[in-house]
Amino acid sequence: MPDGQVIPGFGTFLTSGTPLGLIGPISRREFAVDNIAFNLLFRYPIWATDDMPQGRWYPYVGIGGGTQRARLSLQGYEETSYSPSIQALAGIKFFVIKYLALFGETKWTQGWHTFKYETDSYWERYSISTIHLVGGVALHF
What we know:
Structural class: mainly beta
CATH topology: Porin
Order of helices and strands: EEEEEEE
Strand order of the largest sheet: 3-4-5-6-7
Largest sheet: 5 strands, antiparallel
Number of helices: 0
Number of strands: 7
Shape: elongated
Mean pLDDT: 85
CATH class: Mainly Beta
Distance between the termini: 47 Å
Number of domains: 1
CATH architecture: Beta Barrel
């Protein structure tokens, strides 16, 4: 089993009031994250012809937002948090023929989650950021 990630802790311990400092792999926290978002895309067609009015290739960028669901698992305890999320993306699409294109894209998503561990006296807040690199084939009809 790999070692846990060392992260900086901000704040104080609840019982003693001492600063958190660095928190090591004292207890293993596992996150599972699901994203759903809607994006507004801006693209610029390049090398447009009568056969391919949308362009032979085009770069694009986008922004959007949605919802992020994070599930925390910690030594038998599980909690789910929902958060608004923001998203930014950039990519490029190249048409090999009129209806077949290759594309590559990178997408960044971030949400903010608070886990209360079934109590209002102790909570932890996490910013969960993900980067997706996607490539593939697109069919256009």
